[in-house]
Specification:
By secondary structure, the protein is an alpha+beta fold. Helix content is 21%, strand content 28%. The strands form 2 sheets. Strands 1, 2, 3, 4, 5, 6, 7, 8 and 18 form a 9-stranded antiparallel sheet that branches. Strands 9, 10, 11, 12, 13, 14, 15, 16 and 17 form a 9-stranded mixed sheet that branches. α2 crosses α3. The longest helix has 14 residues. It binds pyridoxal-5'-phosphate and 2-OXO-4-methylpentanoic acid.
Length: 341
């Protein structure tokens, strides 16, 4: 094992080609066992369901190095389950959980030199995804699919890491009621690119989406769920059928209740309540827990009392606890950690 010569503390969040990726194919009604390959390119027929009707789902997860040198993954069974459900919604054959977990183990072991060292603040981002390789021309599900997993070492998703960010309320909507917002399909991200480019050009790190039906409730951002802390120090977590069931958010709720003895209120949250809250943060695999200091909706500016200098007290505690669990410094609840090697 020879770790790659990277400046691990400053690698940013970008794609770096690593050594191996896992590939399995679905053909004649069944998945093959899959294997590791060197080639990062994918060749598709011009009329593949992926290219024509965007039949694709994906996941995002991370592997971490612990102080004793072991490499672990955080709740991969939850990603396996979510991708299983996403595939069902897009009429794709789901990848069985055993195949999903085998692929994660193999691809992480095969790219062990790319797993950032303990204490670097970086981790190995793992991107499992499935897409239609079969040919379609009328609008219909394809009959052949590919499941792939690649890895890339990453640092913080938002510049500045734990420094609070400013976000804007999007004028566009993310996911319709009874639409695909609750599944992790590429199509949800394609439609977010336009508002994401606008947010970045306006100087904001992300878009906050409101519920499309009434535009009065908070949904989530383009790449993370949102959490709030009220004036009494309780965690307030937006609930909606059209947001992605974030594994980080569900873990935070557990940590708040069982590790920090906080009261958690999971319910629809009105946008006009935000001005009464004390703290806000975005949460997700890539985002980890990123404090939000300011939310802007055209000429309305909400400054969270926790400010733009540093994370508020509760968000800091949640951040320290979840990253402590992920890095092995704090004991994890049963079943949260999968030791890969
Ligand atoms: N919401 C969206 C739209 C996302 O893309 C992500 C990222 O995966 C999340 C929420 C956070 O989910 P998780 O915590 O499972 O990574
Ligand atoms: C993740 O957090 O894993 C995601 O898929 C979000 C994406 C914005 C990178």
């Amino acid at each position: 094992m020879t770790k790659k010569d990277l400046d691990w503390g400053n690698i940013g969040f970008k794609y770096r080609q690593t050594d191996k990726r896992f590939v399995a194919n679905f053909k004649d009604g069944k998945w093959d066992e899959g294997s590791l390959v060197d080639d990062p390119t994918v060749t598709l027929n011009e009329s593949a369901g992926m290219l024509q009707y965007c039949q694709q789902v994906f996941e995002g997860m991370k592997a971490y190095t612990w102080e004793d040198g072991s490499v672990v993954c955080f709740r991969p069974d939850m990603n396996a389950e979510r991708m299983y459900n996403s595939a069902q919604r897009i009429e794709m054959p789901s990848v069985p959980k055993e195949l999903f977990l085998k692929a994660i183990d193999e691809v992480v072991k095969a790219n062990i030199d790319w797993v950032p060292p303990y204490g670097s603040g970086a981790s190995l981002y793992i991107r499992p995804y499935e897409f239609a390789t079969g040919i379609v021309i009328g609008v219909a599900p394809a009959d052949e699919y590919q499941f792939r997993v690649f890895t890339t070492p990453v640092g913080p998703y938002y510049k500045g890491g734990a420094t609070p960010i400013a976000i804007q309320v999007s004028d566009f909507d993310r996911a319709a009621p009874r639409g695909t917002g609750a599944v992790k399909a590429g199509l949800n991200y394609a439609m977010s690119l336009h508002s994401s480019v606008i947010a970045h050009s306006n100087g904001y790190a992300e878009n906050l989406y409101l519920d499309p039906a009434t535009r009065t409730y908070v949904e989530e951002t383009g790449g993370s769920n949102v959490i709030f802390v009220d004036k009494d120090g309780n965690l307030v977590v937006p609930k909606s059928d059209s947001i992605l069931p974030s594994i980080t958010r569900r873990s935070i709720v557990y940590i708040a209740e069982h590790y920090l003895n906080l009261k958690v209120d999971e319910r629809p949250v009105r946008y006009d309540e935000i001005k009464n809250f004390q703290e806000c943060a975005l949460c997700g695999t890539a985002a980890v827990i990123s404090p939000v200091g300011r939310i802007v909706n055209h000429d309305e500016v909400i400054e969270l009392p926790s400010g733009m200098e540093k994370a508020g007290e509760v968000v800091s505690k949640l951040y320290d606890t979840i990253t402590g669990i992920q890095s092995g410094k704090i004991e994890a609840p049963e079943g949260w950690i999968r030791k890969i090697c």
